[in-house]
Amino acid sequence: MSNMKKYMVGNPHHQLGAEATKRNSAHMLPVSDWLSDLPENTHLTDLVEVQFKQTRKGYFHNSAHLALEKGVKVVVEATTGQDLGEVVLTGKLVELQMKKNKIDSSRYEVRQVLRIATEQDLERAALAHAREQETMIKARQLAKSLGLEMKIGDVEYQGDGTKAIFYYIADGRVDFRQLIKVYAETFRIRVEMKQIGARQEAGRIGGTGPCGRELCCSTWMINFSSVGTGAARLQNISPNPQKLAGMCAKLKCCLNYEMPVYEDAAKEIPSRNIPLETKDAVFYQFSTDPLAGLVTYSSDQHIPANLQTITVQRAQEILAMNRRGERPENLEGAHVSAAGMEMGFQNSVGQGDVTRFDRKRNNHHSHRENHRPEHRERRPNKPNTGHEK
Q1: CB atoms inside a 10 Å sphere around CB 383
Q2: Domain of 309?
Q3: Do 199 and 253 form a contact (C-beta atoms < 8 A)?
Q4: Residue 43 and residue 112 in one domain
Q5: How confident is the model at residue 229 (pLDDT cuts 50, 70, 90)?
Q6: Which one, of 83, 65, 67, lies nearest residue 75 by Cα?
Q7: What is the pLDDT of residues 5-31, one digit of tens each?
Q8: DSSP string of 301-326?
Q9: Considering its fold, how many domains does the chain have in total?
Q10: CA distances (Å), 5 to each of 1, 12, 15, in order?
């Protein structure tokens, strides 16, 4: 029972969140250094990229020409005091990263790398980070006592323990001037407040999604694009809020991953507002399958009636005929039945139906049944005439 207490949600010192944060902070946002093979790469610039907890990164000058490479712990200058981080990028690629992130080195205050972290620096940073969970819980209580409509999502201590960043979530503007004074008096540190969204909070906490993998926001995503319900409708996903919402209670970011493919495929599909006219009836678009290039039409505009599935090419042909004042006999010609659609699907990895094991077992069983003595054809005994061999 004692071993289970540390995993209880109510325990402020639970280990699951701490271990996930430690793992994600060490391996999040990896950058492939494709210039590392060039021997002169490290001599092109003295800039290095240093990562701190989770998504926070900074750029620093290695003016002392220390032997820095990816993975080295360093002590750097901070706004007040010193901070400890990990070198994640060196060489020319750092300048390209700054350009990508729209950071102008002439305006951006680039501080210095002071030294490679010693054992004393690492121990001091570890003691500071060990206070983060307790500080976060106490900070939430203080914010609630002041009646502020906000939630403290995470706390990040500086490497020297003299300053902490309080990440908070709020729907609107929050006047936390009094709160900063209370935090400074309570924790005896310098306080910085930073607002984040629900997606950033989920990324900092970490977790496992319904796909069985770690959350994208806690492993590699740094820029969060807006996700709308139109992405689900275009991909023919059921608009079930419980299925579409992620761990952050927002629409899943992965709904946008395949959107460009669906948008390109949907360009070929006729407009939903244009019906198809035949000599017998008028058909209205009921549903589409952009990737398969299929469109289903109904003879009624409001309910599914006499559903017929045709290819996009066939629909375009009928629309062209209607514009010329012609009407085909029916929608047939490129009609695809439900059985044909099912037979047309093939597993991409070359595996067959899962029932193939049952069929194999049944065939084997029937084969054994046919060879049992009671199933063999009994022939009458013939007298031996001596002429048979």
Answers
A1: 6
A2: 276-340
A3: yes
A4: yes
A5: confident
A6: 83
A7: 333 333 333 333 444 444 444 445 556
A8: SSS--S-EEEEHHHHHHHHHHHHTT-
A9: 4
A10: 7, 11, 10
pLDDT at position 228 is 86
- Reading across the β-sheet that carries 190-195, which strands appear in turn? 151-157, 163-169, 190-195
- Rounded to 5°, the CA angle 34-93-125 comes to 105
Q: Contact, 103 vs 48, CB < 8 A? A: no
Q: What is the pTM (predicted TM-score) of this model? A: 0.61
Please identify, among 221, 236, 263, the residue that sits at the C-terminal boundary of a domain. Answer: 263
Domain boundary among 162, 196, 230: 196
Segment (H or E) for 183: helix 177-187
Instruction: Please give the mean pLDDT across all residues of the chain.
Output: 78
Q: In terms of DSSP bridges, do strands 282-289 and 276-277 run parallel, antiparallel, or are they unpaired?
A: antiparallel
Tokens 């139906």 -> residue:
353
**Interaxial angle between packed helices 177-187 and 132-145, expressed in degrees from 0 to 180 and rounded to the nearest 10:** 140
Indicate whether 328 belongs to any domain.
yes
Residue 237 has pLDDT above 80, yes or no: yes
* Interatomic CA distance for residues 244 and 249, integer angstroms: 9
Q: What is the CATH number of the domain that holds 171?
A: 3.30.300.20
Cα dihedral sign, 261-266-268-269: positive
pLDDT tens-digit readout, 272-291: 889 999 988 899 999 888 88
Q: Are residues 228 and 187 in the same domain?
A: no
Higher pLDDT, 20 or 317: 317
Residue whose C-alpha is closest to residue 292's, from 346, 231, 232: 346
Which position has the token pair 């761990």?
Answer: 247
3-state class of 302 per DSSP? coil
Q: How much is the pLDDT for 220?
A: 80
Which span out of 65-69, 365-369, 379-383 was modeled with the highest average pLDDT? 65-69
Residue 166, pLDDT score: 95
Residue 347 lies in a domain: no
Q: Which residues pair with 116 in a beta bridge?
A: 74
Judge whether 250 lies within some domain: yes
Report the alpha-carbon distance of residue 151 to residue 171 in Å, rounded.
10
Tokens 């629909």 correspond to: 315
In a domain, 298, yes or no: yes
Beta strands in the chain (DSSP E): 47-51, 57-61, 73-77, 82-90, 111-116, 151-157, 163-169, 190-195, 276-277, 282-289, 294-298, 308-311
Contact 125, 159 (CB under 8 A): yes
